[in-house]
Specification:
Structural class: mainly beta
GO molecular function: hydrolase activity
Helix content: under 10%
Protein name: Glycoside hydrolase family 16 protein
Oligomer: single chain
Domain GH16: 48-281
CATH architecture: Sandwich
Number of strands: 19
Largest sheet: 11 strands, mixed
Strand content: over 45%
InterPro entries: Beta-glucanase-like, ConA-like_dom_sf, Glycosyl_Hydrlase_16
Signal peptide: 1-28
Length: 284
C-alpha cells in the first residue's frame, strides 16, 4: 500500500456504525501508521426513485438521440431514441430497453439518458440500484462525463465509469476513469467479480465516492478500488462538474456484436439514482 494519506469513505447513513468501523479497521490493518480520514457523505442533493409512471422526470433527464459519431465513438450498433418502447418508468422502475428492429438505418434501438444542463456537480457519493441485462453484445453503463469546458474535448474533460458491464460476462463489472494520457484502451480500470451470483438475476448498488484526491468504487457498499492522482499517468481532471449518464448500448468495440444466442429485447432496470454531498471529514 502506498505511503500516503488514504481517504476512507463513510458508508451510506442507512448502514450501521459497525459496518463503517469494519471498513476503517480493514484499511488500518494494511498500515497502522497511516492517518485515516473518513469522508462523510450524507447530504442528499439528487434523488430519483422513478415513482411516476410514464416518461422519466424531465426536470432531471435529457436524451441523446441517434447514432452519434462512429457509433458514439465506440462503433455501437443502436439508434438511441426517447420512445416509450425504449425508455419508460413503470411500477417504480426506470426501464431502458434495447430492441432488435430496423429503425432509421440501424438494426437496433435503445436509450441514453443524461442530466447535462439539469444536474451537474463536483464530488459526492453517486449511486444507483440496478438490475442488469444479459447477452453477448449487450453493454449497459452508469457513468459520469465532464461538463463542457471551452476549448477542451474528451478525454481532457474526464470520464468516470461507475459501472460498465459486458453482457456476456454476467458476474463481472468494471469501474474506470478516462483522462488525458489514460483513455480508451489505456484507461485506469478494475474488475469486480460477484461470487456465487450474477448481475442479471437481481438488483445491486453501484456507486462511487469522489473527492478532490480520490475516487472510490463500490458494489453493494463493498469498496473494491480506489484511484488517486498518483495512480494516473496524466493530468488529474476530476475537479470540476460532471453529469450523469445511464445507457444501454448494443455492440461496439468493448463488447463485440450480438450473436445468434443474444435474446431481444433486453432491459436495464433502475430502482433509483441518488447523489449525496460531503458535509465534512472525520480523522481516525
Amino acid at each position: 500500500m502506498k505511503d500516503k494519506k488514504r481517504f476512507i469513505p463513510m458508508l451510506r447513513v442507512a448502514k450501521s456504525k459497525l459496518a463503517l468501523l469494519a471498513v476503517v479497521f480493514a484499511f488500518a490493518a494494511c498500515d497502522t501508521s497511516e492517518e485515516q480520514t473518513v469522508a462523510v457523505f450524507e447530504d442528499l442533493i439528487l434523488e430519483d426513485n422513478f415513482d411516476q409512471d410514464g416518461a422519466p422526470d424531465a426536470s432531471i433527464w435529457n436524451y441523446d438521440i441517434g447514432t452519434g459519431q462512429n457509433g458514439w465513438g465506440n462503433n455501437e450498433l443502436q439508434y438511441y431514441t426517447s420512445r416509450s418502447e425504449n425508455v419508460s418508468v413503470q411500477n417504480g422502475y426506470l426501464l431502458i430497453t434495447a430492441r432488435k428492429e430496423n429503425f432509421q438505418g440501424s438494426g437496433y434501438t435503445s436509450a441514453r439518458l443524461l442530466t447535462k444542463g439539469k444536474f451537474e456537480n463536483t464530488y459526492g457519493r453517486y449511486e444507483a440500484r440496478i438490475k442488469l441485462p444479459y447477452g453477448q453484445g449487450i453493454w449497459p453503463a452508469f457513468w459520469l462525463l465532464g461538463s463542457d469546458i471551452p476549448g477542451e474535448i474528451w478525454p481532457q474533460i474526464g470520464e468516470i465509469d461507475i459501472m460498465e458491464y459486458r453482457g456476456q460476462e454476467p458476474t463481472v463489472v468494471l469501474g474506470t476513469v478516462h483522462g488525458p494520457g489514460y483513455s480508451a484502451g489505456q484507461s485506469i480500470s478494475k474488475r469486480y467479480e460477484l461470487q456465487g451470483d450474477r448481475f442479471d438475476t437481481g438488483f445491486h448498488i453501484f456507486g462511487i465516492e469522489w473527492g478532490p484526491e480520490y475516487i472510490n468504487f463500490y458494489v453493494d457498499d463493498v469498496l473494491y478500488n480506489q484511484i488517486t492522482p498518483d495512480d494516473v499517468p496524466g493530468e488529474w481532471v476530476f475537479n470540476h462538474d460532471f453529469y450523469i449518464i445511464l445507457n444501454l448500448a448494443v455492440g461496439g468495440s468493448f463488447v463485440g456484436s450480438p450473436n445468434a444466442e443474444t435474446v431481444f429485447p433486453q432491459t436495464m432496470l433502475v430502482d433509483y439514482v441518488r447523489v449525496y454531498e460531503s458535509n465534512g471529514q472525520r480523522n481516525f
